[in-house]
Amino acid sequence: MESFILQLLKPIIAFLESLTLDEQKKFAALLSIFVVSLTFLTSIFAKKKSNPIALPLDGKTAIRLPLERIVQLSKDTKLLRFTLPTKEHAFGLPTGSHVMVQLTDAKTGEKHMRPYTPVSSDALDKGHVDFVVKVYFPNKQFPEGGKVSQMLDAVKVGEDTVEFFGPLGGKRYVGEGEFTVKKLKSQGGGVERRDARDEVGMIAGGSGITPMLQIVREMLRETGAGGQSPKKISILYANKSEEDILCRDTLDNFEKQFPGRVKVWYTVDAASKKKEWKYDVGFITKEMIEKHLPTPAKSGDRFQILVCGPPPMMKFAVNPAFEKLEIGKEHVLTW
């Protein structure tokens, strides 16, 4: 093997020996430039090759995707994974926006729609998109339950497809702790920028955690890529019971992987008597927000609180607490 390599190197050695000392130096310099250029071009090509292909979401045309996988998260909640056209495809949804899911009733032919936010990340999850769906079954308060969630519950792997429209929503997380908000025409139009480089607080109720997960994943991905903002992410998550907490493993892992940077706190309407519960019990209060989330009194001006939850939570708990804590609209983004 060694003799074979020497045979290959002989012409190169002979060529170098035929050069003067100055010519050898020039040749070495040219060779170095060639190697550096080749390395640079190779890295660019690799980056281009690794960039995901975004779906053509234009807000008007439906994108139809087949169901790939179902993961049961709780008694009434599932993770639905839909397959994208290729393994290099990403869903292509801007962080902070959502899509409209549309299904057709097989019996009546009637179309039903409902907004959902994926919990997967375009940058981290290629070839598929994940949605967490809480199924609202018929009950005394709502005899028909949730039409779309029940239809999604009936979708079969490898057999059925679902239609998606988007992107929707006027709020975007644009990176490094900054958000943009599209203003209405009545507000003068244009785009408003919100600064949350110091801290982002989040209040979620029930399935309202899904847009928060999407945003947190992107913020933490930025950290892995050298990003520094926001410096702190605090999440206050309300549910009926401990069993109703969606994606708890994911949230707890965020806190473990980024200690001091991510803080998660739960509150439930009623705690289980069978096991210890170290978090809060009851509706979200002024004291909970003051203790676990940023406020003007302790966080200055560079913070935002993102909120997504049922209207009663907003009307009777969150909004009154914000008023008492003097947290103005300029510091609140509602999904």
TrEMBL record:
Binding site for FAD: R114, P115, Y116, V132, K134, F137, K147, V148, S149, T210
GO MF terms held by the record: cytochrome-b5 reductase activity, acting on NADH; FAD binding
Record key words, sorted: FAD, Flavoprotein, NAD, Oxidoreductase
CDD domains attached to this UniProt entry: cyt_b5_reduct_like
EC number(s) reported in the record: 1.6.2.2
Entry superkingdom: Eukaryota
Keyword Oxidoreductase: yes
Cofactor(s) required, per the database record: FAD
Claim: Metal-binding is one of the keywords in the record: no
All copies of domain FAD-binding FR-type, residue ranges: 60-174
Enzyme class: oxidoreductase
Pfam families named in the record: FAD_binding_6, NAD_binding_1
Record's catalysed reaction(s): 2 Fe(III)-[cytochrome b5] + NADH = 2 Fe(II)-[cytochrome b5] + NAD(+) + H(+)
InterPro entries, per database record: CBR-like, Cbr1-like_FAD-bd_dom, FAD-bd_FR_type, Flavoprot_Pyr_Nucl_cyt_Rdtase, FNR_nucleotide-bd, OxRdtase_FAD/NAD-bd, Riboflavin_synthase-like_b-brl
Family assignment from sequence similarity: Belongs to the flavoprotein pyridine nucleotide cytochrome reductase family.
Protein name: NADH-cytochrome b5 reductase
Organism name: Bathycoccus prasinos
